[in-house]
């Protein structure tokens, strides 16, 4: 063997570790695939977050805009109908205020809620309440109406989304006023009890005599119901009031004292 061959062997031996290092290409490839997967997963999570954010914005903000717009239009139509003289004849109701136009029976005013006037319609199904109104119960317990001699005028409205007309129901306290407006009469109620949480299946709270409120005899009551806690529909929040007086609508006198 020549001396030159001895000199080349160290060079060849040095190349061996270099060749062995080529095996590290497999772990590097796996790391590349993992990094790509994590990147894709991150993008998907961001997309899902944006979609959920848009959905929440739609549910809690945009539905309010749409519902308030719809309720305002319908409320204006009702007031225009009220300006027209009632049609004479046997179909005329006993009281002008009892006229149910099919689109609303009147307007609810609760100063403590700071929610303006709320159109009240018949029924409590989602297709009614989603229009940014309050509805009076027709089932499972039929509501009385304010002009009835006795009974419980029981109402429901959304607390969040679709107008959220009862969002601030937790601001209502004993002694606060609840006023219902018809074409010719203001019905003024005074809050006397509240139930901050009860089962959504508790129908006794809208009974003609709501005994859970502490009342045991027939009267002229009003009940407001909505979901609780906020942003859920697990339980119901209830406020009760009792009629303290009525006042004829008079353009010269304007609003009743409770709304000034």
Topology:
Layout: H1 3-20, H2 25-83, E1 106-109, E2 117-122, H3 126-129, E3 134-136, E4 151-156, E5 177-181, E6 185-199, E7 220-228, E8 235-248
Parallel strand pairs: 2-3, 4-7
Antiparallel strand pairs: 1-2, 1-5, 3-4, 5-6, 6-8, 7-8
Task: Describe the protein in words.
- With 260 residues, this protein is α+β, with helices and mostly antiparallel strands.
- The protein contains three helices and eight strands.
- The chain has helices at 3-20, 25-83, 126-129; strands at residues 106-109, 117-122, 134-136, 151-156, 177-181, 185-199, 220-228, 235-248.
- Strands 1-2-3-4-7-8-6-5 form an eight-stranded mixed β-barrel.
- Residues 1-24 and 89-99 have low confidence and may be disordered.
Mean pLDDT: 83
Most strands sheet: 8 strands, mixed, barrel
Continuous helix count? 3
Report the top-level CATH class.
Mainly Beta
Helix share, percent: 25-40%
Q: CATH superfamily name?
A: Sortase
Report the β-strand fraction as a percent range. 15-25%
- CATH topology call: Sortase, Chain: A
CATH architecture name: Beta Barrel
- Please compute the radius of gyration using only Cα atoms: 34 Å
Q: How do the helices and strands follow one another from N- to C-terminus? A: HHEEHEEEEEE
Descriptors:
8 strands, Sortase, Chain: A, disordered N terminus, 260 residues
